[in-house]
Amino acid sequence: MEELREVRDNWYAAYFAADVDSLKEIELPDFKVMSQQGIESSKSRYDAIMNANSSGNWYKPSARREEESVTFNQHGNAC
């Protein structure tokens, strides 16, 4: 479980830093994100992140995430 939490924390750090190279390493090829636009492909999402970051419209370094509750349910070797 600790490894899952670590990967999750690394994903959040990469996402908020607009570190697309790290996101590509962390995410599986079939990773999907549901947004207001629908299900986003990795390429379109990576492009959007890079464009927003380069235009100054991405998260500021002072941004932080806040979670009310996170629960991991382990079922054998899967979560």
Summary of the model, kept short:
Helix content is 44%, strand content 8%.
Please give a handful of descriptors for the protein shown.
79 residues; mainly alpha; two-stranded antiparallel ribbon; 2 strands
How does this model look, in words?
The protein is mainly alpha-helical and 79 residues long. 44% of the residues lie in helices and 8% in strands. The protein contains 3 helices and 2 strands, in the order ααββα. It is globular.
State the helix count: 3
Number of E strands: 2
Quaternary organisation of the protein chains? single chain
Strand order within the widest beta sheet: 1-2
Overall SS class: mainly alpha
Low-confidence stretches: none
Order of helices and strands: HHEEH
- The average pLDDT score comes to 87
Overall, the morphology is: globular
Q: Gap between N and C termini, in Å? A: 8 Å
Q: In percent, how much strand structure appears in the residues?
A: 5-15%
Helix content: 40-55%
Could you tell me the radius of gyration in angstroms? 14 Å
Could you describe the largest sheet, including whether it forms a barrel? 2 strands, antiparallel
List the helices and strands and how they pair.
Elements: H1 2-16, H2 20-26, E1 33-35, E2 38-40, H3 42-54
Antiparallel strand pairs: 1-2
Helix pairs in contact: 1-2
